[in-house]
Amino acid sequence: AGICLGGSDIFASVKENSPTGEFISNISIRGYPGANTVKLCLTGDNANWFYLEGRTIRLNTSLSRVLDREQVQGSVLIAELTCYEDDVMQSQYRILVEIVNENDNRPNFLPETIQPFTISELTPVNSVVFTVKAVDADGDMISYIIDQSSLQPDAWFFRIDLPNSGNIVLNKPLDYETRTHLELIICAQVESNSEEKFNTTALLTVNIEDGDDQYPHFLPCTPVSPGVPVCMSPTYTTNITQKHQDVILEFSPGPIRAEDGDRGIDTSLIYSILSDDQSRFVINDRTGELRLTRGVDDRRLTPNFTLNIMVCQVDDRLKYSVASVLVRVLYENTFPPVFNRTTFKGFIIQSSSPASIVSTYGNQVLQVQVSDRDFSDGLNPNIHYSLHPLSGLYQVTQRGVLIARTDQLHAFDRHILQVVARDEESGEEVSASVDIEVLQRGQAPRGAFTEQQMFGDVDSRLAGGIAVMILLMFLSAFLFLLLRTMKRRRLQRDPEEHTAVALEKHPN
């Protein structure tokens, strides 16, 4: 009866994930199992985690059955050791084995804390905007870190003040107009003394909600500088004539339209005219459509009108912008400008002077001008002259005079230019060619005594015929005078001949 005596309850510990056969404890009974009819048995809920090897208790695991503290019910394995002699139970001892935890699990974020979320762009800096939370099956402390590498520029908008809190704090002001959403990576890391530090990461999406912090602006928007969401108001322009009245005006750029600077809110806007001394215009306060109500009586008295148009938010009149409107009163355009010929001819003498004026073969200044029948004197003050294409040797003034860079010209050259006359009000264009001959110093123009000098604007064929007729007239007059002179001389010699005959002498 004393063989099963001498034992005691067993209290031990074993690390989770320990291999099979790991030593648990020795049994201190007097007898030896298998001899003298002594038998030991393990019973209880967790008895299958152990096996006996003589008077030693060892851990019973396998590849498919690993001791995992997080998977076992509780953190202690409980069993009973019963000692039998001749199949009669003599003693029973408790076995309590604590499973020692190891850092063998990664922390996991709670899904509800890493969902996309929205914050207002007006959120104050240093405010806690959201909180993340991760759990570790091993029960270890978790610290949180924001990935602020160069690949995550959005991370600098946030910071974590207390590493174990999971509270994310706004570090920089938000601006919906430049960024509508941000992304950052949060890392949760287990704090333990083990060599391996288990961690996990989560990508968070932060949607920025537009706040009412921008003023309305007129379109098109021209930023004051690249990357700055502040617009310079355009100047809207249009042209009318004295006959226009009670019409809706079309502008360039146009139409007159504005939008709320807070695109995500798009508050309703209202338009108004700030300055209209003559009460000649009305504006649709909802669409910005501008109407001319009365015509202009005299363009010379009112050549243009300048208005200031204001747009403001319906719900906040202090948020507004102002744009200028220029309405120009033009002459009625019935006839296009025209040149009096398609080709002008002139010459220039090569010299060392930097500039000279091109002349006609009649030794007059060559002036290439258009006439416009819309004006009583034929001169349209809105005509702009230019060369097309631009020339490095010639320029044309706004009075149609051609100026040449004579120090860069070469004698005996010939240049064909195209002069374009554009009506800056109507946009009409007309062109003519200019044929310029470059003469050597001291060289007379080849056409100086030709029909082009004498009949500058007359067709060359007609001028040639007239020149021939005048030449014949000169020849006829010359012959007439010659015959008349010869006749007079003959009459003067006749008395001398009669006297000589009387004296019997020859007059010679």
UniProtKB/TrEMBL annotation:
Q: What UniProt keywords are attached to this protein's entry?
A: Calcium, Membrane, Repeat, Transmembrane, Transmembrane helix
Pfam family membership, one: Cadherin
> What does UniProt give as GO cellular component?
catenin complex
**What stretches pass through the bilayer?**
462-483
Q: In terms of one coarse class, where is the protein primarily found?
A: membrane
Q: What CDD domains would the database entry show?
A: Cadherin_repeat
Coiled coil (UniProt feature): none
Please, one GO biological process term?
A: cell migration
Every copy of the Cadherin domain together lies at 12-109, 111-218, 256-339
Report the subcellular localization. Answer: Membrane
Q: Which domain of life is it from?
A: Eukaryota
Q: Which molecular function GO terms apply here?
A: beta-catenin binding; cadherin binding; calcium ion binding
Full protein name: Cadherin-related family member 5-like
